[in-house]
Design brief:
Structural class: mainly alpha
Strand order of the largest sheet: 1-2
Largest sheet: 2 strands, antiparallel
Order of helices and strands: HHEEHHHHHHHHHH
Strand content: under 5%
Distance between the termini: 68 Å
Number of strands: 2
Number of helices: 12
Helix content: over 70%
Length: about 290
Amino acid sequence: MTTITATRPPSAAVEPATDRVQPRPGWLQALATLARRRLSLTARTPRELIVPVTTPVLFAVIIAPALADTLGRSAGGIDYMTFVAVSTIGLLVPISCLTSGLGVLVDRISGARPDLLAAPIPRPLIVAGNLVVALLLSGLQLAALLTASVLRGAEFDLRLTGVAWFVAAALGFAIAMYAVAETLANRMPTQEEYIGALPVVAIVPWFLGGSLFPISAMPAGLTAVAKVVPLTHVLALLRYGLVDRKGTGLHDIWGMSNPTTMAALSMGVVVVFALALTAVSIRTFNKAAVK
């Protein structure tokens, strides 16, 4: 008998088995990708940018001047139309952020979020990507509101320190309101329930926060309530930054004489508010992701 031994050609040599792990993208790259995805879903048409800003702009350029002519020319020593134009930010930002949150709800119910959750990225980055887009859209709409207000006759005192207070307060407020939107988007089972919650979140605090008149003009009980509403601190800071260099609105809250100290205290309230709600939104997102 002849024994035949089969030999494997060199080209067929088997390489040692190794697990090739694809490198994970850096968190900045992942954040940019997530933000681009959310932006493409949220602002696919000009209508989705224009509609949320329509009501606040109309309020600032039509209703505010009418109220100024009817009720008087000043509120707390500030031109009334300018007073209400700044107050409208307290309505615009929640509506804009809640509109962004509605897209997150749709993505959770019928979109591609299950596939997104399988990506090799930290889940909080998904929330952060959504937040970046919400801030961008809110900023664009805020710029449109202020421009329309100036064209209508509002008078702003643009100083570097004042603008810094204004930007910090607006940014903190937008972060907090998007955190509310993200939380609701991950808790509400349907779009109808989400939309039903919008008036409670966006409109009720606006009337308590000294939007149409100083909080000192309200009954004592409502004034006490208004002092603990975060929006009251936001609006006082926004006015301090652009129109109220004496800090009249801040004085109505804190009763102190130093505007800078009062502004720092109110800014602390806004920062705590934003951080706490952001932590809640991330925790809610993580719970919803495993269901």
